Amino acid sequence: MESQDLKKAGLKATLPRIKILQIMEESEHRHMSAEDVYKALLDSNEQVGLATVYRVLTQFEAAGLVIRHHFDSGHSVFELDRGSHHDHMVCLKTGRVIEFKDDEIERIQREIAARHGYIIEDHSLVLYVKPRED
Amino acid sequence: MESQDLKKAGLKATLPRIKILQIMEESEHRHMSAEDVYKALLDSNEQVGLATVYRVLTQFEAAGLVIRHHFDSGHSVFELDRGSHHDHMVCLKTGRVIEFKDDEIERIQREIAARHGYIIEDHSLVLYVKPRED
DNA sequence: ATGCCTGCAAAGCTTTTGCAGATGC
DNA sequence: GCATCTGCAAAAGCTTTGCAGGCAT
User: Fold this and answer.
1) Please, what is the Cα angle at B112 between B109 and B117, to 5 degrees?
2) C-alpha to C-alpha distance for A131 and B1, rounded to whole angstroms
3) Fewest CB atoms less than 10 Å from the CB: which of A2, A24, B20, B123?
4) Is the CB of residue A121 less than 8 Å away from at least one CB of chain B?
5) From A71, A117, A122, residue closest to B131, measured CB to CB
6) Is the backbone of residue B82 left (phi > 0), alpha (psi -120 to 50) or beta?
7) pLDDT (tens digit per residue) in B31-73
8) Distance B89 CA to D6 C1' (A)
9) Predicted local confidence at residue B121, as pLDDT
10) What is the pLDDT of residues B75-111, one digit of tens each?
């Protein structure tokens, strides 16, 4: 039940929030822009303002429910935080987003940061790729 | 001589372009936003419009003279392309940007892309870090 | 009941664009 | 001289915010 997740996150279980959470859970695209979410709401005949979508997504981010990515395009993309960290590969031809994770890379990253006297708080790794058979 | 670089890149050697190239070469910060460049121009008593800065930086990017990064902040930062690829570490406390490169990480990245049937066109790796002695 | 939410419209920021005049070659 | 470039101001995205009314608890 979404209302539980919301309350657990310290957010009142309002209709827009519940709907947005549902949209993101049910969407076939795990990465959605605010506009994408807004359009999906309209498609479901939900009356929610775009400003509210932005506000809710920002609150979700603060609450750790979603992760905000920037990729390379000047606008934000949101993804439900299912708890398992991973990196992304974006196909330049189709726009498809593939998730992956590699412990070896993560290990080396920590090592490099440490070598400079730092601790990693977060990181962003995006591979921009194209199909091999081009 | 900057005008040579510009002509080689197929761009007319105009004053704004030359000045912007100089600014970026001489700045102690290798990563500058359009606004940063614009302010630096004003500080040097150069009369160049902000729109021109954006236009020139975009042309430079297309010409391969600079690289545009997005990091995580909703605005672009530009860096002179000195030919040697590297990744970035951004200190969350001071904003300092450190460059690094690791062949092992690069190798694994290519391997992962290949495993999914892709070839890497480009990639972006940014570590958001904080000093160890916090 | 009351304090947190929402919708709308307006404003904010970064970046782009149209146009007339200026400049490089 | 002519095409390209620049400055200005206006516009265009994306995102945030102020305010008056609405909703969850």
Assistant:
1) 125
2) 40
3) A2
4) yes
5) A117
6) alpha
7) 999 999 999 999 999 999 999 999 999 999 999 999 999 987 8
8) 36
9) 92
10) 999 999 988 899 999 998 888 899 999 999 999 999 9
- A112 and B120 Cβ atoms separated by less than 8 Å: no
Q: How far apart are CA A50 and CA A93, in angstroms?
A: 29
Provide the pLDDT for residue A22: 96
Which positions of chain A have pLDDT values less than 70?
A: 134
Neighbours of B109 (CB within 10 A): 21
**Which residues 14-73 of chain B have a CB within 8 Å of chain A?**
70-72
SS3 state at A128: strand
Given CB atoms, is B85 within the 8 Å cutoff of chain A? no
**Distance in Å, residue A37 CA to nucleotide C23 C1':** 48
Percent of chain B with pLDDT over 70: 99
Instruction: Mark yes or no for CB contact B89/A128 under 8 Å.
Output: no
